[in-house]
Amino acid sequence: MTGNIHWLGHDTFKITGGKTIYTDPFSIARKDTADIILITHEHYDHCSPEDVKKLQGPGTVIIATPDCARKLSGNVRTVRAGETVTVGKVNIEAVPAYNTNKKFHPRDKGWVGYVITMEGKRTYLAGDTDLIPEMKSVKADIALLPVSGTYVMSADEAAQAALVINPRVAIPMHYGSIVGSASDAVRFQEILHGKITVVILPKE
After folding, report:
1. Is residue 203 part of a domain?
2. How are strands ordered across the β-sheet holding 169-173?
3. Residue 103: pLDDT band by 50, 70, 90 thresholds?
């Protein structure tokens, strides 16, 4: 179920299959060529033009919010929550991502998460968000959820989000780099034990 998902730290994942997809590239150690790059919002640890360039080839499609798209070049497609972009046989739906009890990711910024449908599997990248009502509408087999607290959901809140979304597998992210530690991922897993399968991916 998760064999095609590789965690490169923070909110950066490499998802392989029909296309090679990278999410929020940050501190990229190895050059690669992505078919699709997804960027959730314009903060430097998510929208990093120098890291995008390490993964960008002539055919790479970048999907980003309008404020981030202005910092990038190439085949950039802007999205807002509620919109869908199709690249080949991959469908990418933008969904809301925002804070409810902190000020770092205001709702009015229009920042997003994504639901990626590839080869019949739906993967939800939550972005930098709290537990929000819109998660009730997310249908996903795999949910990539931030767990560090401070700027995003805590492990406890992320576990609540996982129960709302009810994926087959939940994967913690947004820890071990700028904020949060492996203990947040472990707590997330412990809370959901017996309810939802949690896979803590090693950093690659």
Report:
1. no
2. 84-87, 90-96, 112-118, 121-125, 142-146, 169-173, 197-198
3. confident
Per-residue pLDDT tens over the stretch 123-156: 999 999 999 999 999 999 999 999 976 778 999 9
The answer to whether position 204 is within a domain reads no
Whole-number pLDDT of residue 139: 96
C-alpha–C-alpha distance, residues 143 and 162, integer Å? 7
Buried b (16+ CB within 10 A) or exposed e, 155-166: bebbbebbeebe
Asked whether residue 165 is domain-assigned, the answer is yes
Domain that holds residue 111: 5-198
Task: Name which of 39, 1, 10 is nearest 22 in CA terms.
Answer: 39
Whole-prediction pTM? 0.94
Q: Please report, for the domain that includes residue 131, its CATH number.
A: 3.60.15.10
Checking if the pLDDT of 176 tops 70, the result is no
In the chain, the number of structural domains is: 1
Can you state the percent helix, strand and coil of the chain, rounding each to 5? Answer: 20, 30, 50
